[in-house]
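Session log. Operator J.P. requested a structure for one protein chain; no other inputs attached. Running the standard single-chain path with token output.
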Amino acid sequence: MNLPIASPPWTKLGRTIESKIRKALYEFELLDGNDKIGIALSGGKDSLTLLFMLKAILGRGFPDCKLYAFHVSGTFSCGASLQQDYLSAICRDLDVEYVVKHAEQERDSLECYSCSRKRRTMIFDAAKERGVTTIAFGHHQDDNAQTILMNLLHKGEFAGNLPKIPMQQYGVTIVRPLIFVSEAEIQHFAEHHHFRRITCQCPVGQNSMRKQVDRLLQNIEELYPHARDNIAKAGLLYGSKKALSP
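Structure written below.
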């Protein structure tokens, strides 16, 4: 099998992404106190970029944590409905333990919020079984801007994706090392290393509220070209930290 493994030496873009991830890891202390780190691996461009980058970074200026990849499969799971041997082969090549959980989901009951919670809970449980209490998700700068706009318009809250958030109820911590990295940078990186072809196959996700907000941001950018970047930055600087409250 011809695997799209991304590894150093990087192009200029790869070095830029690594630098931004290192900044997030350092600035928000995302790896502190850990000897094991999990990655929520959907198999899409974001989580694969995160996997390749963390594998390259760990042990080089940061603790050499053991990496685990947690994948939730299922007909309508977010990601690409990938063949299991594809992701398992990538993880095997990288010497990353690959763990699969299967989600049962019916088309008639599909809904993004409840599906996301269920998948996260499965990942958290699988991680804790292996002594992993910090799990990295592939949420990037654009995801943060979308979340801020959704919360602002729906709830009147100025709150985005926090880089590090203890999930008290579950006994794990979520970290987001891609928080400074734009989706465009990830797309170009994935194209260069030949894994951008993987896309979400969920029929509900194609027209979710997040997709609609992304289109709204595209319209705003016609007037304010740096809107997405500025919204994400403002969220990190001034956004609500209510989610950190016990």
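Operator note: Residues 12-244 form a domain with the Rossmann fold fold (CATH 3.40.50.620).
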